[in-house]
Design brief:
Elements: H1 2-21, E1 25-27, H2 29-45, H3 47-53, H4 55-60, H5 65-80, E2 84-86, H6 89-122
Antiparallel strand pairs: 1-2
Helix pairs in contact: 1-2, 1-6, 2-5, 5-6
């Protein structure tokens, strides 16, 4: 449970850093926490459906259309969370890429930590 909370806070921190780096993305501290939660829910519930529905165009564009899907979902989170604003398509694409990269790194660190604990128990 503590790891889940830490991942949530780290995702919110990543969103704050992204808002600082990417012009056109604005977020407050409280809204970053809410947005991280909302984006997690969106990625679990809505993203798989959109990926399946857009599969033909994704195949035709060799996967590049997933950038549009991710940017749209990033913008949807901005619409749902007060205090989180994205000023257009390009900031949404850049923000969604950076947010994906940050969450990938967070996931990697926690997975790597889990693997290290497993190795220590085995020896």
């Amino acid at each position: 449970m503590l790891k889940l909370l830490l991942r949530w806070v780290l995702s919110a921190a990543a969103l704050i850093v992204i808002a600082y780096v990417v012009p056109g993305i604005h977020v407050t501290l409280v809204s970053a926490l809410i947005a991280a939660l909302v984006m997690g829910v969106i990625n679990v519930l809505i993203r798989p459906l959109l990926v399946i529905l857009t599969l033909p165009i994704t195949v035709i564009t060799l996967g590049l259309f997933l950038l549009v899907v991710n940017a749209a979902l990033f913008g949807l989170a901005a619409l749902l969370v007060p205090g989180f604003k994205v000023d257009g398509f390009v900031p949404a694409v850049i923000g969604s890429l950076l947010y994906w990269l940050a969450n990938w790194a967070i996931h990697y660190v926690f997975k790597h930590e889990k693997d290290n604990k497993s190795l220590k128990k085995a020896s």
